Each structure stands twice: as structure tokens, then as C-alpha cells.
């Protein structure tokens, strides 16, 4: 028997011994709704500029990589310096399946999830074996090794040029409509990741995650199955990152490891974590939009932009408030549930 | 088969000794400052391109260019990395590491912007332009000299750390910082000294290997990766571990190259390191002290 209860601030749904609730009081959803509304209305102002649409689509994808990374960093109590590894694995899996097996996006998505999940599962014991700093170094080396492999097997991965000509998710009659559609898809992906990661963070799972992040030994003593949780928090965000690779393949229809696997790309993602607000899921969005805008606007300077971009990022880290980052500027006036402290630990 | 074994042994010695030069500075900073210097790759780039700039743009000779470059290296290491990053963000490691990488990336792209690969940058530091034949193995004298330089520099560093009073203070800081502070060790001065000492081996390395390794703006990444692998395998910041790990990695690279295909040597070294870490989480010498 399902019963519905309407309370002042929430709606409760009861079924057998289960309880589900939805918050309806405006103060809980007003600001997120305004934020989503603002993001969703962006194409109204920039629909005539495909380059800006591409930039904000890229920003959504950066955020979609950074949000699971925040969850992973907290849940494994390790700073992953190579999240782009799974972006590369996911992207190449989707691209190779599409090009060589002729499979459509739905099947390549399934393949991406399976391959990324399998490899992440295989590598997940590193979260137990490697101490904090060692883990960071290993995670830094892995994508670079994968990049090496893409050059070694150039006949498969097409090295520097990358793979091109993958089938699109869809094709609309007007080019501009495609840009707008891909923006909304990327926004949907990013918001979906935010919702999922936020739900995990606020659940009982999230409490255990916070305990692991604070002190693994104490968490273990309190009965948290630390090793299993670490595997989950390593594998699940890795799959989410792999899906972004799949999305890139079927959106931009080109994928080259040399774009996504080197140190340059990794630094962008780490800067988004730092500038947006360390390991705080919502910070990824302003961080990603800022970094994407900076990157795009520096392109007008020509080849020197490759030098100016890291220098600008250095300036951003030095100038912007440290710790809670851009998100902290807004959030400091509000109640905080849990703010994870990041350390590249030695133990 | 005997010939292959012969080649593996010779190249284990040569590559292992060169890897010593590559990783010594990285391990030193790990051991003394207890941080990862992810901007370490910049040292190699700066060494090569500063010498080239002084020779080509200022028209200086090779020796004055190398001496000036060394001064630039030390100034850059102290002013940018130590004062600019390490000192300010010592308690925020993720920022420290990210900033170090960004400086390295910026320097790499600057080198690429000023002197792209097509500029044909080369450092004429060949000492003996000939080859030596041992059995059926032919080796360039420059490689042998680079290997000998690696052994000599490492021996000097180890002796200096073991036999001098300053070396003792640095080892004390590496073992127990609070205790060293209580005993009146000039930690800041020693950190400065460690930063200076850390740029010398990679600089010598770059000068010795440039004639046969080649110079390009993006060479810092693979060299940094090698240094990191050695540091992880040997045990962070432990010079004994670095020495053992250098030759182990040299052996793996040589074995994979001669028994299989050279392009897999990096992957093989990584797999081996991960395998070792299953049994020894902190690397071969897990003490995390300098010696």
C-alpha cells in the first residue's frame, strides 16, 4: 500500500517499510533551479556563435570529468593525477567499436562501460597497495603510458592524428541546431553526474566515504568495509569519466589520445578541482566554465597561447581564494554538510 | 644467446648509470624536502635550451654557455620553484604539485614556441666522437662517458652526504625534521642547498646525453617519468633505493629491448614497479629517508 504525506517542506511516499521523500520548500531548490535555468538559457544569447557554443559544451564536459573525480578523490582518500586515463580508454573503445565493428552509439556506450569498468576494476587494488603519494605518481604515469601505447600501436590508434569519422549521436538538418543540441546533451550529462554524485555524497554511502577520507583506520574500526568502498569509489567514477570519452567521440567525431592524455589536459582538470573548490562537487561547474573561457579567449593570441594558458592558470591559483575556491565564495554563507580536506597523503 | 646476454649486461650498466643521473635530483628533493618535484622535467628543458640560447643568440662559446646556464638553472630553481611554490604551498600538496607541473608545462611550450623541433636544436657536447667494440657490441664513447659521469656524480653525492657535517645535517632533516629543528639545524638554508644540489645531476645528464639522445622541447616528460618510476621503485627519497632502482629499470629496459621490442620497455618497467609495490608498498627501500 502506497501512502503519500504532504508536510510543510517535503512530500513523503511510503511503501511497505520503505520511505522516499522529496523536498518542496523553495529554499532547498530555488538556487539550484536558478543555476540550471541560467545554464540552460545560455544558448539563447550565444546561438549565433558556434565557437562559443562549442566552448560551453566543452566546459560542460570538463565539469562532467571533474565531478566524478571529486567523488573519487574523497572516496578513495587518494588524489588521482590521471583521471584522463579513463577518458582515453572510453573514447578509444567507443571509436574503435564504431569504426571497426560498425556498432551504433548505444552499443559503443555499453562497450565503453564494460571496458572502463573492467580496467578500473583491474587497477583498483592500487588504491589499497599504493600509499597516497605513490598512488598519485602511479596515476600520473598511467595515462602517459597509455599515450605511449597509442603511438606504439599507431596502426590501431592512429597516434598523433587520432581516429576520425565516427558516427554522430544524431544529425539535425541545420548545423547550428546540432551545436545547440550537443550543448544541451552535454549539460544533461553534467547535471546527471552532479545529481548522482550528490545523492551518493548525501547518502549513508557518502558518510562512509567521508570517514574514509578523514581517517581510513578509524573508518575501518567503525566497521566501514574500506577496501570494498575504495574499489567502488575508484571504479564508478572511472566509468563516468569513460562515458565522457564516449560522448566526445560521438559528438566531435574525432578522438586523439594526444589531445586528452598528456599532462596539459590533466592540469586543466586538476585546476578545475582547485579553482572551483577542492573536491566539492558543485565547484566543478564554475571552475570548468572559467577554465574553458580562459582557454578559448587565449586562442586569439596564436601559438603563444600554449605558453599563456598555463601562466594564466598559475595566476588563477595564486590570486583566487584558496581552499573552497569559486564555489566557496558563494557557499560560505550557507550551511555545509561536509567539506572534504584533500591531502596527497604519505600513508 | 650469449651475445644477447652480453648486450643486456652492458646496456644495463650504461642505461642504469644514466638513469642515476636522471633520478638523483628528484630523489634528493623527495628525501630532503619530502615533496614530489613534478616540475623536475623543466630542469632538462632549461638545461638544453638555455645553452642553445646563449650559444646561438648571444654567440657565446660552449663552456661559458654551460656555466651561465647552470647559474640560470640554480636561480630558476630557487626563485621560481622553491620561493615561489614550495615555500608558499608546503602544506597544500595538491596545489604545490599542480603549480609545479604548470611551470614545467609553460616552460616546455615556451621552448617549443621559441625553438620548435624544426629549429634543429643540438648541443655539441660530444667528448669522444667514436665507438668502442666490446665483443660484438658496439657502443658510442659518449654513452660510456655519460654512464661514468652518472657513477662519479652519485659517488660524490653519497660521499658528501656521509662524510661531511652539512651532509649529516641534511640527513638529519631527512630522517626527522622536528628533531633536526630542535637540534638547531638551519632547515631553510639546507632546503636551499638541496634545491641547488638537485639541479646539478640532471644538468650534467642533459649535457652528456644530448649528442645521442636528441633535444626536443617535450623531452622533459619521459625523463620526469623515468625519474618518478625510479623514485617509486626505490622508495621515495632514498638514494640507496634510487641506485638499486636505476639499475633495475636499466636491466628491464635492456632486457625488453634485446629480447623483445624496445617500444615496450616503458610499459614493462611500469608493470614491474607495480608488481614490486604489491609486496613492498613503500618501494625497495621504504624508509623515506635520504640514506
Q: Would you write up a description of this structure?
A:
The complex is a heterodimer of chains A (347) and B (291). Chain A is mainly alpha-helical and 347 residues long. Chain A has one domain (47-331): ABC transporter involved in vitamin B12 uptake, BtuC. Chain A contains 16 helices and five strands. Chain A has helices at 26-46, 50-76, 84-101, 105-123, 126-129, 132-152, 154-157, 175-202, 204-214, 216-221, 226-252, 257-260, 263-276, 284-298, 305-319, 325-331; strands spanning 2-6, 10-15, 18-23, 163-164, 254-255. In chain A, β1 (2-6) and β2 form a beta hairpin. In chain A, α3 packs across α4, α8 runs antiparallel to α11 (226-252) and α13 (263-276) packs across α14. The longest helix of chain A is centred in the middle third of the chain and has 28 residues, at 175-202. Chain B has 291 residues and is an all-alpha fold. Chain B has one domain. In chain B, 73% of the residues lie in helices and 3% in strands. Chain B has eleven helices and two strands; from the N terminus they run ααααββααααααα. In chain B, β1 (131-134) and β2 (137-140) form a beta hairpin. Chain A binds chain B through residues 79, 81, 125-126, 129-131, 133-134, 136-138, 140-142, 144-145, 148-149, 152, 262-264, 266-267, 270-271, 273-274, 278, 303-304, 306-307, 310-311, 313-314, 317, 322, 342-344, 346, and chain B through 36, 38, 92-95, 97-99, 101-106, 109-110, 112-113, 221, 225, 228-229, 231-232, 236, 263-264, 266-267, 270, 273-274, 277-278, 281-283, 288.
Amino acid at each position: 500500500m502506497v501512502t503519500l504525506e504532504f508536510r510543510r517542506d517535503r512530500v513523503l511516499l511510503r511503501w511497505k517499510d520503505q520511505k522516499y521523500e522529496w523536498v518542496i520548500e523553495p529554499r532547498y531548490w530555488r538556487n539550484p533551479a536558478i543555476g540550471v535555468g541560467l545554464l540552460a538559457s545560455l544558448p539563447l544569447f550565444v546561438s549565433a556563435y558556434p565557437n562559443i557554443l562549442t566552448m560551453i559544451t566543452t566546459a560542460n564536459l570538463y565539469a562532467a570529468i571533474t565531478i566524478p573525480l571529486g567523488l573519487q578523490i574523497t572516496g578513495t582518500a587518494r588524489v588521482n593525477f590521471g583521471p584522463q586515463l579513463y577518458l582515453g580508454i572510453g573514447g578509444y573503445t567507443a571509436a574503435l567499436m564504431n569504426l571497426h565493428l560498425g556498432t551504433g552509439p548505444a552499443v559503443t556506450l555499453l562497450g565503453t562501460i564494460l571496458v572502463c569498468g573492467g580496467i578500473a576494476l583491474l587497477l583498483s587494488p592500487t588504491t589499497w597497495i599504493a600509499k597516497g603519494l605513490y598512488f598519485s605518481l602511479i596515476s600520473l604515469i598511467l595515462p602517459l603510458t597509455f599515450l605511449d601505447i597509442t603511438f606504439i600501436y599507431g596502426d590501431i590508434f592512429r597516434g598523433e592524428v587520432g581516429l576520425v569519422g565516427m558516427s554522430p549521436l544524431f544529425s539535425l538538418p541545420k548545423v547550428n541546431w546540432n551545436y545547440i543540441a550537443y550543448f544541451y546533451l552535454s549539460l544533461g550529462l553534467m547535471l546527471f553526474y552532479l545529481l548522482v554524485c550528490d545523492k551518493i555524497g548525501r547518502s549513508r554511502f557518502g558518510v562512509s566515504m567521508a570517514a574514509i577520507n578523514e581517517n581510513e583506520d578509524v573508518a575501518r574500526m567503525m566497521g566501514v568495509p574500506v577496501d570494498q568502498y575504495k574499489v567502488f569509489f575508484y571504479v564508478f567514477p572511472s566509468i563516468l569519466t569513460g562515458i565522457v570519452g564516449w560522448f566526445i567521440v560521438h559528438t566531435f567525431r574525432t578522438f586523439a589520445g594526444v589531445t586528452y592524455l598528456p599532462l596539459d589536459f590533466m592540469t586543466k582538470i586538476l585546476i578545475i578541482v582547485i579553482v572551483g573548490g577542492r573536491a566539492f562537487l558543485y565547484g566543478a561547474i564554475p571552475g570548468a566554465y572559467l577554465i574553458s573561457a580562459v582557454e578559448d579567449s587565449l586562442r586569439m593570441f596564436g601559438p603563444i597561447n600554449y605558453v599563456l594558458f598555463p601562466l594564466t592558470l598559475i595566476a588563477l591559483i595564486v590570486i583566487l581564494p584558496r581552499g573552497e575556491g569559486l564555489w566557496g565564495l558563494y557557499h560560505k554563507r550557507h550551511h555545509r554538510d561536509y567539506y572534504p580536506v584533500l591531502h596527497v597523503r604519505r600513508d | 644467446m650469449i651475445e644477447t646476454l652480453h648486450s643486456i649486461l652492458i646496456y644495463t650498466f650504461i642505461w642504469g648509470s644514466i638513469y642515476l643521473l636522471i633520478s638523483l635530483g628528484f630523489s634528493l628533493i623527495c628525501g630532503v624536502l619530502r615533496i614530489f618535484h613534478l616540475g623536475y622535467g623543466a630542469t632538462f628543458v632549461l638545461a638544453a635550451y638555455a645553452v642553445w640560447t646563449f650559444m646561438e643568440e648571444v654567440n657565446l662559446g660552449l663552456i661559458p654557455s654551460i656555466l651561465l646556464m647552470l647559474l640560470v638553472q640554480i636561480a630558476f630553481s630557487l626563485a621560481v620553484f622553491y620561493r615561489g611554490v614550495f615555500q608558499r604551498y608546503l602544506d597544500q600538496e595538491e596545489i604545490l604539485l599542480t603549480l609545479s607541473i604548470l611551470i614545467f608545462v609553460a616552460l616546455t611550450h615556451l621552448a617549443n614556441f621559441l625553438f620548435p623541433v624544426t629549429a634543429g636544436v643540438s648541443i655539441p657536447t660530444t667528448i669522444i666522437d667514436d665507438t668502442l667494440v666490446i665483443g660484438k657490441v658496439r657502443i658510442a664513447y659518449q654513452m660510456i662517458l655519460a654512464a661514468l659521469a652518472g657513477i662519479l656524480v652519485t659517488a660524490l653525492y653519497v660521499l658528501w652526504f656521509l662524510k661531511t657535517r652539512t651532509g649529516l645535517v641534511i640527513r638529519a632533516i631527512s630522517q626527522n625534521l622536528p628533531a633536526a629543528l630542535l637540534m638547531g639545524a638551519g632547515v631553510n638554508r639546507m632546503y636551499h642547498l638541496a634545491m641547488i644540489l638537485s639541479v646539478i645531476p640532471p644538468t650534467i645528464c642533459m649535457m652528456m646525453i644530448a649528442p645521442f639522445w636528441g633535444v626536443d622541447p617535450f623531452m622533459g616528460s619521459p625523463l620526469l617519468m623515468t625519474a618518478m618510476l625510479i623514485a617509486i621503485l626505490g622508495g621515495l627519497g632514498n638514494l640507496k633505493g634510487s641506485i638499486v632502482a636505476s639499475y633495475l629499470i636499466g636491466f628491464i629496459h635492456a632486457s625488453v629491448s634485446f629480447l623483445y621490442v624496445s617500444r615496450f620497455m616503458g610499459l614493462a618497467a611500469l608493470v614491474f614497479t607495480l608488481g614490486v609495490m604489491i609486496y613492498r608498498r613503500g618501494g625497495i627501500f621504504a624508509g623515506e629517508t635520504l640514506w
